[in-house]
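Predict structure. Chain length: 494.
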Amino acid sequence: MKNYKYFISLFLVVSIATGCEKFVDYDPKEDFQITADTYLTNEDDYQKMVIGTYSPLQWLWANPVIGDIASDNSVSGGENATDQIGFQQIDDYQSNSTNANLTEAWRACYEGINRANYLHENKDKFNFVGKDALYGQVYFLRAYYYFELVRMFGDVPLFVDKRLSVSDSKKYSRAPKADVYKQIELDLTNAIAVLPNVNVEKGRATKFAAQALLGKVLLYQGKFDAAATMLENVVKGPFSLVPNFGNIFLQAGENGPESVFEIQYSNASPFYDWSNPGRGQGNLAVQICGIRNLTGTSPYSSGWSTNLPTKNLADAYAAGDTRKAVTILDIEAYKTANPSFGITYKVAPYKNTGLYSQKYMPRVGETSGQVELNYLNNFRTIRYADVLLMAAEANNRATTPNDSKAQEYLNRVRKRAFGDDLHDISATGTALRQAIWDERRLELAMEGDRFFDLVRTGQAASKITGFTVGKNELFPIPQQEVDISGLKQNPGYN
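Prediction complete.
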């Protein structure tokens, strides 16, 4: 093995953050270095490196934002047409191969894959009790990173045996999407076989998280029978819908009974850097969603007025749907209703809708240090409600549809939303299918799935202004990968 160096910042330590354990990145700067040849010689090394493989999940903070801005759910907002330019391009359907947010998504995913592969190639270097279960986490993470890549970019380079060196950059071409999905399924199947149902440490992958992700992967491929079977494991698992929808997104609601998998963030560590603001341990997506120059005594903190919900989304909620007020904050209505707060703010200068993303709104007391970069809010990456709706769709679209079960799962979500049985859906067939798709929008709005749902269900062209069929189903491959590695660009981006 070549003598590659890994800074200790590749590894993580576990930290306590406001009452719950979270993974946080530890970086004692570059004065301490470890070579790959001398690492992984004891169980503690393996444990730290596995936690290090979780770290790039935090760097994907922009992916959920992209999933809504690219759809009919939100607009880029911001100070002006050049503020958060990557999001502006995505919103305007003018993305190019130098888009910084898309390039970072590519880099972060492949860094995660490289770390997983480093562990894979050294799997037999040292044995200890519990190693198989630990490697279940490694394969779950590799599958997660590849799934993010394949649904954003389509065909992507596929390598699993080892981490890449610089000399490998031109050895890999883009593998067919079907091959990438095959590897994702294999990794998740292997993870399911060894992962525990419950992990004592919150944020680590479990058998149920792997089953839920595999169900989602199968759904994306149109393998509805297999998806229904896989998701049923999670439906019957130890999860429940939180009675109060809004509680899910509070700090006290993190890693709760509805949580299947969450990406952990922390404000407990001082490691953040304006030169690379999305690679600390805080959730930068929270800061960008906030209300510009907000003052007063409300529970909310100021932000950058980006990722603004659309009126189209707000109008999609029926009267009595409690999710609307949790998902969307109408700041003027809120100000009028709470005069004692003394609220003042600056109207979002660009693409103003008057609406803000409340699920991940910055809140007082949830950041520290460099406040803009250090919000502790977890991403609720897979929720039980999401699983129920995926299972409903899979049953409706199965070879032998089970619309009764699909209705049951859909209506469990709607009962929570409305607090009664009066809004149950009794439709069947294609009408039920559309109702499930519409429900996914309402339930999961501003959580990053909308664009990908519209693409995979063939609704994108009819729902998204500017969407071009045959091009915009995918994002452009980063130009540096085209130039350096010789990868072929996606259609329409040349």
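Summary: The radius of gyration is 22 Å.
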